[in-house]
Structures are given as C-alpha cells and as structure tokens.
Write a structure and sequence with these properties.
With 411 residues, the chain is α+β, with helices and mostly antiparallel strands. It has helices at residues 2-8, 170-181, 201-210, 232-237, 268-282, 307-312, 314-319, and strands spanning 59-64, 73-79, 87-91, 98-101, 103-106, 115-121, 129-135, 144-147, 158-163, 187-190, 220-222, 247-251, 254-258, 287-291, 322-327, 333-336, 339-340, 343-344, 352-356, 373-377, 381-388, 391-398, 403-410. It starts with a helix and ends with a strand. The structure holds fe (ii) ion. Fe (ii) ion (FE2) is lined by residues 193, 225-227, 293, 329.
C-alpha cells in the first residue's frame, strides 16, 4: 500500500516500456523505465528548442552507461521546469566540435522538482578522454571531462570503487566520494539506498549535490535498493540499460551484472535468476562481478543473510564464474570466504561475497559466529578493486584512510 501511494504521487511526462531489459540503445529513443512496466507513449519536449526558463543553469549532472561503455556515455542533469533545451557539446578539448541532443521530462507533480534532461553520446572512441558541457546556447554547464572504457575484451588494467547506503547522511557520502577520489577510480558502483525515502527529492538533491565534481566526471552504475522504494524518482534520475533494474555491462575484460532484489512484480527475482544464467553464459569476459543491494551471505545482526537469494542467485553466480558479489543493506563491511553452495572453497573456484555499506547510514552490528565470514568491520567504508595482468586486488578502506581488508585472486 505504501509503495502504491508513493508511485501515485510522482508522475512524469515521459515514460517507456520496460517489460524486458532491452537496451536503451545509443542513438535511439530515450525512455524512462518504470516499475510495473507502464507502456504509455512518451511525450518528448523539443531538445533543439532554445527555450530557457528563469533558472536554466544545469545542475546535478551525472554520468552513467545505458549502452556500450567503450563508445557511449549517458548524462543526466536538471534545470527549472521551463527550460527545454537539452544539448551536449563534446570533443577532445574545450572547443568541443560535436553536439548531441536528448530528451527531457518534468519531475514531480506538474514539474514541482523541475525538469530532468538526458542525453546519450554515441560513436565515441574507446579509452579516450573527452571534454563536455550540457545545457544550451548561453546556458552551458562548466566544462568537465570523462574517459570512455577500453575496448571490450581488452586486457587493460582498470580500477573501480564500490560503496552504498548513504541513506540519510549525505555529508558522509560526500566524505566517501572525496576519499574514493584519492584513488582515481575509472567508475563507481553504488549498491543502493542512496536516500532514506526514495520519494523525497530533498534527499536526492543532497545526494547529487555531494556528487558534484565526482559523478559528473566518472560514471556511476547503481543497483536499486529497498529505500529507493521503486519510486519514479529513481527511474527518472538515472540512465542505465533496459529496465534499469537488472542489466549487464562490460568494461575491458570484465562483465558486470546488476540486479534488483527489491522487486515490484512477483516472480521478478526468479526472472532475474534465469536472465542472469543466460547473461553469464553469453559472456567470454575473464572477470565477472555482480552488484545488488541485499546480501545473500552476511553476519550483520540487523538483517543477516537472505536465504531466498542464497537459493535463487548464488548458485547462478557461482556456476557463472562471478568472482565478487557486491551488496550493501547491512551497514558495515564484510567479506565472506570464497563460497560454493555455502561451503568454503578457493577464490578461483568460488564467489566471494562483499558487503560495502559504508556511505553514511547508521552502522549495524556483526554476529561473527557464522563460518562463512572471513572479515567484518563495523565502520563507514568503501572498496577499491584493481585488475591488472591477470590479478585482482580488493582493498577496503575506512574513512580515515586505513586499510581494513585486502583480498587477491588470479584468473
Ligand atoms: Fe537497504
């Protein structure tokens, strides 16, 4: 009932069919996925119209991928409701030279939260740094840069950062971003629960404000958490592949599966298990990672393990070669032993389950009586993963910059 009331009070102009995780294909129609798989036709504003409202300055710009990471980039930003121009200029330097247009829609009831703009840059060169600015003539954002992913399958070294669960402490989220920045990750994974209540735009505004200077320069891929509540804000504010709940993407010789364990439709957890089995069976990537919100294996005293996910998803991940499964939800840091069917195995043969829920939410306790837990720390935290020359190195940090865990494996 709560979920239905939350969905009912937030409407947008432009929505799309998300019945299947088909690609939000670069150069194709931009749509906003929606819980419940609404198929209402989109009503796009004209992105070429040089129409600006009273507050047209773009803000809360952030980057992600809704298509191939080596050749595309998606960007989302906000303005006042009356600004229709949705343009990006981009290129090798600040003379730009290339332009793209996107689509926009009102956020909140009758645009109470302004307008969201989304554009996709296509046909980019892999492994290349671009300058860009968003908005429209006379109302551009400040110049920023991003770098495309290496060619898929290429054994290039890369680094990514993982955290989640900022919830109602966006100041800490800002500190975590600053700490992650010191490691210059190529991109971020966020395991859900960015805000305490997904319908509350004030919380989202604080989350994106803290991200300024970070998520407008490094792409962030997001797993829907239970505190996103399947509200339209989540779908409207992010650009990710397909239904924006379960999807995959490649980066160099790695394959990332993103799942949603807080589903709006009965059977979607089972559906995701079948989808993931096909998806992992179709990739040749050496390194495979999973990202979702609720841990299958956890020693946290508040939520603990999730028996349904252990039955539904863990066997698929373990058989599919997933080396690390990242989650949040349980507000601490945990790493399991490498597991196969719940039993300890080697890092090469099993999946290691990592909880990195350290971006601000109040901390929970640990019950260390579980045999599957190798490391657990009650502290705000984030994880840096390096892959180079056939070796993966995970390093977990607290906000004081202290190393709280390391883990290495080879493939
Ligand atoms: Fe959660």
């Amino acid at each position: 009932m709560l979920l239905l009331s939350l969905l009912a009070c937030h409407t947008i102009e432009k929505i799309g069919d998300s019945a299947a995780p088909t690609a939000n294909v670069c150069g194709g129609e931009i749509f906003v996925a929606r819980a419940g798989y609404d198929t209402t036709d989109p009503v796009p504003a004209d992105p070429d119209a040089p129409v600006f409202g009273a507050a047209p300055a773009p803000y809360h710009t952030h980057l992600s991928w809704s298509d191939e990471p080596s050749t595309t980039m998606a960007m989302v930003w906000r303005t006042d409701a009356d600004t229709l121009a949705t343009r990006v200029e981009y290129g090798a330097d600040t003379t730009y030279g290339a332009t793209a247009t996107g689509a926009s829609w009102l956020l909140g009831v009758e645009g109470a939260a302004g307008r969201v703009h989304e554009a996709h840059l296509c046909d980019l060169t892999p492994g290349t740094t671009y300058h860009y600015r968003v908005g429209g003539a006379g109302n551009w954002s400040e110049d920023a840069t991003f770098t495309t992913a290496p060619t898929p399958g290429q054994a290039a070294p890369f680094r990514f950062a993982v955290t989640g669960d900022s919830r109602d402490n966006q100041d800490t989220w800002g500190l975590v971003l600053d700490a992650m920045e010191a490691h210059a990750p190529d991109f971020y994974l966020f395991s859900g629960d960015a805000v305490d209540l997904g319908v509350n735009m004030t919380e989202w505004d604080a989350w994106f404000e803290a991200g300024k200077g970070h998520i407008d320069r490094r792409p962030l891929m997001f797993a829907h958490g239970n505190h996103e509540f399947q509200v339209q804000n989540y779908y409207a504010l992010f650009s990710q592949p397909g239904n924006e709940q379960w999807f995959s993407f490649d980066y160099a010789d790695a394959h990332f599966v993103v799942l949603n364990d807080t589903v709006a439709t009965a059977g979607d957890r089972e559906l995701q298990a079948a989808w993931m089995e096909n998806d992992l069976g179709a990739t040749a990537a050496k390194w495979r990672f999973a990202l979702h919100h609720m841990p299958a294996y956890s020693s946290c005293t508040t939520h603990g393990s999730n028996a349904e996910l252990q039955d539904l998803w863990s066997p698929v991940e373990e058989a599919g070669g997933v080396v690390l499964d990242f989650t949040g939800h349980n507000h601490n840091y945990e790493r399991s032993y490498p597991l196969r069917d719940g039993a300890q195995t080697t890092a090469e043969l099993g999946t290691t389950y990592v909880v990195a829920a350290g971006a601000g939410a109040d901390l929970y306790g640990n019950d260390l009586s579980n045999a599957f837990t190798e490391v657990a720390e009650i502290t705000q935290n984030f994880v840096i993963v390096d892959v180079a020359d056939g070796t993966l190195t995970l390093t977990a940090y607290d906000l004081g910059g202290n190393v709280i865990d390391t883990f290495t494996t080879t493939r």
